């Protein structure tokens, strides 16, 4: 829904005002029988709906599960408990539900409260749900232990059922579909290397070293998916079967659309930067699109990589899924409006 709800960097009240106005327009999306929001809402009428292709009109895990940081921050800024309560209701509902193999399917019907198709992915449709469990804990100054426990349990199930090593020793994260593991990893799943590393500190049972190693292995696999192309840009998805490893097979998975990596040589055009349609072609065709996340994420990550750690120290700031920094809320003995006393 919305990821750039407020700027904590400027301190300007106009951004807070606009964030609240936008959030109020989004709240009708939660008016469903379950409280799981629609994917889309008409800002004028307040009428919400879901995509028809999403498992019979289901809501998508990476959408309704990627609101927590922004809405908690809004409650902190405004004192209005409604935002906090909306996202905490989502968490509580998910906690009560049975999960196949401990995994969260990507689709949930907001009318019935039942899972849609049992498809689980740490890439598109699922990715940022897991990211926000970890970051909710970090943003709370590590007091939201419920979020941390939910993250740890989810990661344990992912490691058991989705993470495998290829014949050549590459660690990858597959997708659970129709009762079996598909040995394909999406480009979007590559964020998980960083997530495992970020979550290593605070892992249960002294597993910090294990998760740092796992994060490094995932990052290495993603590097291989880049290195095995002609342009040295990663494909949208890559397989690990039939003798092929970390390589895209289908034509519709060979494109690259400016996700956050090195791109100057092949993607710069006269008007900015463009995605390319086939990273295995030495003479690639442009898709003539500069994605919005290119500015929000790609350039920001590159800038921060070459900046000092003190510019945005990670003990004071947490990046949301579109790379907007939100401050760690050091509430001490305070409680957020609408929340129970912190344990």
Automatic annotation (TrEMBL):
EC class of the enzyme, as a word: hydrolase
Q: Which SUPFAM superfamilies match?
A: Seven-hairpin glycosidases (SSF48225)
Cite the binding residues for Ca(2+): 321
For this UniProt record, give its keywords in alphabetical order, as a comma-separated list.
Calcium, Disulfide bond, Glycosidase, Hydrolase, Metal-binding
**Enzyme Commission number(s):** 3.2.1.-
| Keyword Hydrolase among record annotations | yes
What cofactor does this protein call for? Ca(2+)
- Where in the chain are disulfide-linked cysteines found? 190-222
The superkingdom of the source organism is Eukaryota
GO terms for biological process?
carbohydrate metabolic process
What metabolic or biological pathway is this protein involved in? Answer: Protein modification; protein glycosylation
> Cellular component per GO?
endoplasmic reticulum; extracellular exosome; Golgi membrane
Q: Which InterPro entries match?
A: 6hp_glycosidase-like_sf, Glyco_hydro_47, Glycosyl_Hydrolase_47, Seven-hairpin_glycosidases
Q: Which GO terms describe its molecular function?
A: calcium ion binding; mannosyl-oligosaccharide 1,2-alpha-mannosidase activity
Similarity field: Belongs to the glycosyl hydrolase 47 family.
Q: What is this protein called?
A: alpha-1,2-Mannosidase
Q: Which organism is it from?
A: Danionella cerebrum
């Amino acid at each position: 829904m919305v990821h750039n709800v407020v700027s904590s960097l400027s301190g300007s009240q106009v951004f807070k005002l606009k964030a609240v106005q936008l959030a109020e327009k989004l709240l009708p999306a939660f008016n469903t029988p379950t409280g799981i929001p629609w994917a889309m809402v008409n800002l004028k009428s307040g009428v919400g709906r879901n995509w028809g292709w999403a498992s019979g009109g289901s809501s998508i895990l990476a959408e309704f599960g990627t609101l927590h940081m922004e809405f908690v921050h809004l409650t902190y800024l405004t004192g209005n408990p409604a935002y906090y309560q909306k996202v905490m209701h989502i968490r509580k509902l998910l906690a009560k539900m049975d999960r196949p193999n401990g995994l969260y399917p990507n689709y949930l019907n907001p009318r019935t409260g039942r899972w849609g198709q049992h498809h689980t992915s740490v890439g598109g449709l699922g990715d940022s749900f897991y990211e926000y469990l970890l970051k909710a804990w970090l943003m709370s100054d590590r007091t939201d232990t419920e979020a941390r426990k939910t993250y740890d349990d989810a990661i344990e199930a992912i490691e058991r059922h989705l993470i495998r090593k290829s014949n050549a020793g590459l660690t990858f994260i597959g997708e659970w579909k129709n009762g079996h593991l598909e040995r394909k990893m999406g480009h979007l799943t590559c964020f998980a290397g960083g997530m495992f590393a970020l979550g290593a500190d605070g892992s249960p049972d002294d597993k910090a070293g294990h998760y740092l190693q796992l994060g490094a292995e995932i990052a290495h696999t993603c590097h291989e998916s880049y290195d095995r192309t002609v342009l040295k840009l990663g494909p949208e998805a890559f397989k690990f079967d039939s003798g092929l490893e970390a390589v895209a097979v289908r034509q519709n998975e060979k494109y690259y659309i400016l996700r956050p990596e090195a791109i100057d040589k092949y993607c710069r055009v006269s008007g900015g930067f463009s995605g390319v349609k086939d990273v295995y072609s030495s003479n690639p065709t442009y898709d003539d699109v500069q994605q919005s996340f290119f500015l929000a994420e790609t350039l920001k990550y590159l800038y921060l990589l070459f900046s000092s750690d003190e510019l945005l120290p990670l003990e004071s700031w947490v990046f949301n899924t579109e790379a907007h920094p939100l401050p760690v809320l050091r509430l001490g003995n305070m409680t957020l409006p609408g929340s129970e006393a912190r344990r």
